[in-house]
């Protein structure tokens, strides 16, 4: 067991380091002049551009910028945003504070709904209910997130809030009224994420359950007279949970990475919208910090999923 854990830990650390290095190099080999963009003046003087390059260390050799970047990261410093001159850490904390409640709600709802519907469809295979649920899931799975979001935006604009996370014209609200206001603005983004992720979860859980229900030990359990509910809960679902864990891990990773389109469509001021704005402004420190946090989160979630695999099925360590 220790060898398996050490291997997965080493793999996760190496993955983060490689992603960190690529993250640094990528934004510096792309075409365009960041200093000119910084000046926000179409015909900035050479003196202004040089002053900005010195201020942000862009005049240093690439290897020296990389060493300085690693040193700053070791101290928890992700640099200063080119766009608003604020620490990147502060910008990301504020953005993540808006993203996590919205995306977490959508992911949790999709996991619960997708698992229940997937198990029901597998157990009721071939029935009318199974056909309706499976075909509906296939249709929603085929929809892209941006298409589904725009459809919901067209259908419910004017009925539900469709932009931002609060009403800018509302009078002074109590904490409870503020909570309800944010919850109403969260409905359409959460529904978009839930519909997209639920369809994928249904198809994966149904497929895994069907494969498990056809195993010999399931027939043996039935022959012993075990109740159907116990067979499904204690035998079938447990052994079918490996692909489900994979799906949950990928969904949790989307908490910080998969919400970009949803946040742009609904003008939700989260990390996805912040990265979108950073791309338009060529805000390298913000992009580096955002993608680094996304990478670490995805690697960490998959690392936890690998440990759960071992817990659910020790054969994966062989």
Automatic annotation (TrEMBL):
Keywords of the record: Cell membrane, Membrane, Transmembrane, Transmembrane helix, Transport
Membrane topology: Multi-pass membrane protein
InterPro entries found in the cross-reference section: BPD_transp_1_N, MetI-like, MetI-like_sf
CDD domains the UniProt entry points to: TM_PBP2
Keyword hit for Transmembrane helix: yes
Pfam families associated with the record: BPD_transp_1, BPD_transp_1_N
TM segment ranges: 9-30, 100-120, 132-160, 186-205, 248-269, 289-310
SUPFAM superfamilies: MetI-like
Domain ABC transmembrane type-1 as annotated: residue spans: 96-305
Keyword Ribosomal protein: no
Domain of life: Bacteria
UniProt subcellular location: Cell membrane
Similarity comment: Belongs to the binding-protein-dependent transport system permease family.
Name of protein: ABC-type dipeptide/oligopeptide/nickel transport system permease component
Species per Swiss-Prot/TrEMBL record: Microbacterium trichothecenolyticum
Organismal lineage: Bacteria, Bacillati, Actinomycetota, Actinomycetes, Micrococcales
């Amino acid at each position: 067991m220790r060898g398996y854990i050490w291997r997965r830990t080493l793999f996760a650390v190496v993955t983060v380091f490689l992603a960190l290095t690529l993250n640094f190099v990528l934004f510096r080999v792309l075409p365009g002049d960041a200093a000119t963009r910084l000046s926000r003046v179409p015909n900035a003087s050479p003196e202004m551009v040089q002053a900005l390059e010195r201020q942000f260390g862009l005049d240093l050799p690439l290897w020296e910028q990389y060493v300085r970047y690693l040193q700053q990261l070791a101290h928890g410093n992700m640099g200063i945003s080119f766009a608003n001159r604020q620490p990147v850490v502060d910008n990301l904390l504020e953005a993540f504070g808006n993203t996590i409640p919205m995306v977490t709600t959508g992911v949790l709802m999709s996991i619960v709904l997708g698992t229940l519907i997937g198990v029901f469809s597998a157990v009721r295979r071939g029935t009318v209910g199974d056909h309706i649920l499976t075909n509906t899931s296939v249709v929603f799975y085929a929809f892209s997130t941006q298409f589904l979001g725009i459809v919901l935006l067209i259908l419910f604009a004017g009925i539900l809030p469709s932009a931002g996370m609060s009403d800018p014209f509302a009078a002074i609200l109590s904490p409870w009224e503020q909570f309800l206001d944010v919850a109403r603005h969260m409905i359409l983004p959460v529904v978009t994420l839930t519909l997209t992720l639920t369809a994928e979860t249904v198809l994966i859980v149904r497929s895994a359950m069907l494969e498990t229900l056809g195993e010999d030990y399931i027939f043996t359990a039935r022959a012993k007279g075990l109740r159907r509910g116990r067979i499904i809960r204690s035998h079938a679902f447990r052994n079918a949970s490996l692909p489900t864990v994979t799906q949950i891990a990928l969904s949790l990773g989307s908490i910080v990475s998969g919400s970009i389109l949803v946040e742009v469509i609904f003008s939700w001021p989260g990390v996805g919208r912040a990265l979108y704005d950073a791309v338009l402004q060529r805000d390298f420190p913000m992009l580096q910090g955002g993608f680094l946090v996304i990478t670490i989160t995805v690697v960490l979630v998959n690392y936890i999923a690998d440990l759960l695999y071992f817990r659910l099925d020790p054969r994966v360590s062989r």
